[in-house]
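Worked problem 6 (solution included).
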Amino acid sequence: MKISYKKLWKLLIDKEISKGEFRKMAHISSSTSSKLNRGETVNTDVLLRICAALKCDLTDILEVVQDEAPTENSDK
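Solution. The predicted structure is:
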């Protein structure tokens, strides 16, 4: 399983907030923003700061995505 932050990026677009404004609002570094962009894990404190800044819930900014099941031909 992995985490997808597509909901976060859509929320920023809907609220017309740039990534730079978002970083300032949530008090996160550009490297943390890059991790979010790549779908990497970040500290839960960061996620809570994002939710506080955007006045939303965790389910509004992320979702857990199941890994794709390997197909029979995946190792060929």
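Discussion: The CA atoms of residues 1 and 69 lie 11 Å apart.
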